[in-house]
Specification:
Mean pLDDT: 79
Number of strands: 0
Number of helices: 11
Distance between the termini: 142 Å
Strand content: under 5%
CATH topology of one domain: Serine Threonine Protein Phosphatase 5, Tetratricopeptide repeat
CATH architecture of one domain: Alpha Horseshoe
């Protein structure tokens, strides 16, 4: 087949463009729109991050100054308008600290619970869970601590959680369970410890003797049997003495 002449090639290109040109132009327009939209999205995201950062800085300074009103105003704005950033979570931690400094432990607990619920599996959420347990112990709510931390597979936080669980068991008078939990805490890596091993050891050493606890929980049937045997022996000895 002979090659097409230049004129035929031009006519063929015109025919192709006439049939598909609108699709090509449409694709170019869509591509440009996507690029413009992506650029605007990135610009808006960067702008949002900057605004949230400035607002968090305001909150941080208010917390440092102990200014609850200004801190709460900045925190409320972060919660409402910048939840797509990580600053609201940071703000909840900061507000919990401020509330504890002001003796508002209930507000501190509420702030930490909100963070735990919002980020259950993140490192920030795990830190919030740990701090919440300290507030709960301060509020004399040891059972809530146990419910909050038990049966969790957070290996990096296990030693810290175990120490808090042990403290809660001590408050409940469950010293055997406390002993076991302190042992788990002290099994923390010696090269990169996450707990104060000396402090945990001191708590462990201060526990009442476990044997004493076991003795107090002795089976009443066995105790009754032992007492009966002792009475019989005493009666026998008395009879022999009278003879």
């Amino acid at each position: 087949m002979e090659d097409l002449t230049e004129k035929e090639q031009i006519e063929e290109m015109r025919a192709w463009w006439s049939e598909y040109g609108n699709y090509v132009i449409g694709g170019i327009v869509v591509g440009i729109a996507l690029m413009v939209g992506l650029g605007q999205y990135r610009s808006n995201t960067a702008s949002t991050q900057v605004e949230a950062s400035v607002l968090y800085e305001t909150l941080f300074e208010a917390v440092a100054d102990g200014d609850t009103d200004d801190a709460e105003a900045a925190a409320s704005e972060l919660y409402a308008d910048y939840d797509s950033t990580n600053y609201p979570s940071q703000a909840r931690l900061a507000m919990a600290r401020l509330y504890m400094d002001k003796g508002r432990d209930k507000d501190a607990a509420d702030s930490l619970r909100a963070l735990v619920d919002a980020e259950p599996g993140t490192e920030l959420g795990l830190i919030a869970r740990l701090r919440l347990t300290k507030v709960l112990l301060y509020q004399d709510k040891p059972q809530e601590v146990i419910d909050l931390l038990s049966n969790r597979d957070d290996s990096a936080f296990t030693p810290r959680y175990s120490e808090m669980i042990a403290d809660a068991y001590v408050m409940l008078g469950q010293y055997s369970d406390a002993r076991d939990a302190y042992l788990v805490a002290m099994a923390d890596s010696a090269s990169m410890p996450t707990v104060d091993r000396a402090l945990v050891q001191m708590k462990f050493d201060d526990l009442p003797e476990i044997d004493m606890a076991n003795d107090s929980a002795e089976d009443p049937v066995e105790r009754s049997t032992d007492e009966s045997s002792a009475d019989e022996e005493a009666a026998t000895d008395g009879g022999e003495a009278s003879e």
